[in-house]
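Morning. Coffee machine broken again, so started the prediction first thing and wrote up yesterday's gels while waiting. Chain of 166 residues, entered below exactly as on the submission form.
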Amino acid sequence: MLPTAWSGAQIALSPQEIEQWPKTASARTLADGWPSRRLASFRVPTLERTVPVCRQLARLWMDSEDITDEGVRCAALLVISELMTNAIVHTNSVSITGRLQKDGDWLLVEVQDEGGTSSDPHPHRGGNANEYGRGLVVVAQSAQALGTQLETDGGRTFWARISLTG
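Came back before lunch.
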């Protein structure tokens, strides 16, 4: 599981910044370098357009951390995309928080929502005709560990651990 105490800068993006990305001051600032090399933490609104912005944020952070292995980068981008999408589609959250952190030989990925779902998401194989159902299976195949934690405020945190050493 991921650490319970995160340290570093948290970036919060408004719905307007998401819609105008990358033509925002935040995007230009982040292009020059991530403010905290230890941790990427970003709070974003639950808009469909948020997912590609989060992928860009993850790329920028991995660049600042010198994570160059394409397998690790692809796995991290897939995991952050799927977990963010699940939080947007399957919860009543107004905003969600994504976090990325290097911990030794591991890349830790976390997405925390505000809750509002009565179901307990778990990996299962969706049929070919189903629009939903395969995301967590793909995430589980891309990570060495995957888990979820219910938060005291009713939200849920999904986390994944990806090996940096292949």
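The chain has a mean pLDDT of 83. Going to sketch it on the whiteboard this afternoon.
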